[in-house]
Amino acid sequence: MRFHNRSSTPSYFSRRDQIRLFRLVAALGVILLAILYASRESTWYWLTGKPADQASQSEKQLDPDRDVDFNVRQDTQLKPDEFRSEPAPHAALPEAVSVQQENGEYDVRVDPRLLNSVSDSTLGVREHEAGALYYLLAKAAAIPQNVLEQSADPAPQFVVIMNDSNKYRGKLITVKGELKRLVPLEVEDNKYGVKTLYEGWFFSRDSGTHPWRVLCTQLPADIPQGPDLKDMPSVQITGYYFKKYGYPSQAGKLQTAPLLLARQIRWFPPSETAQAPTSSGAVKYIVALFLVISITLAFLIWRFTVSDQKFARSKTAKLMEQPDKSMDDLKDIETVDIGEVLKQLGERADSDSAEQPETPDQPDSDKP
């Protein structure tokens, strides 16, 4: 006897199989979200703790005064009969600003040697530093704003740039913050054609109560201006870092602040602030994955519903319908005892064998 293993394709029209498929797809979506969430290092900080360097950086962000010298460097006082003569630092600046290369691309780089005359933590901008200041302002004004923003690096932490000012001098950086003051300034005579100048003071997310200073040559339309902006609009500054600028604070104390030289201030009106891009890149991927899973599940449910309706109208569904009968209908069915049936079959076989006559043996024809 042979047994044939007949493989048949499972039917996916049953409601039970459809629910199982739906659960499998939902479980797959949950697994993908769990993988994405577990891939972030910050997810496991509750178990391992923050790295030492990252923990120290977060502390500095909360307290910019830590290990930062905001004092203005002042010259030593001379006695009445003393005098001092020091040569002013000199840097050979070009007569004109050139921002385009031979291939037509814009050159946003700055030769560090042009800024040798700039020194940090001095009160205001000194006379021998004015040439370099107007050179950078003219260079930023000659380059389109989108080129500057695409070429700039994110600004380092406020504490870092204050402690390592020489490293970032002349670098093109971008920093976001809230504008506190924006007023026009008088322009000094310069050979680079700078005609307008605006001064802005703003606070970044990690600067605390210590502001940044920015000088720019252009302003966007309708940007709030004034010596004390109450609403403090959100702005983004892309410019060249110049120096630690010394200034007298409102409390009468001399302090320093980072000075940026920019083309213009990018302003985010209140209606656009909510639409500003978020710094967390993973959010958009999570939302996109959730939408894909939702659309897939909705499509599967729609397909299952259509299949159920189509199957309900088919002949197979009608044949598979259970007859509307109860157990009482089975009482009229004649039953048979298997033992009695076997006994009758045995008696019939015995009677047939008794009626059949015996056949005599035939003699062999070959024998004499």
TrEMBL record:
Membrane-spanning intervals of the chain: 21-38, 285-305
Annotated keywords: Membrane, Transmembrane, Transmembrane helix
Location of the region described as Disordered in the Swiss-Prot/TrEMBL record: 344-368
Name of the featured protein: Uncharacterized protein
Keyword Transmembrane helix: yes
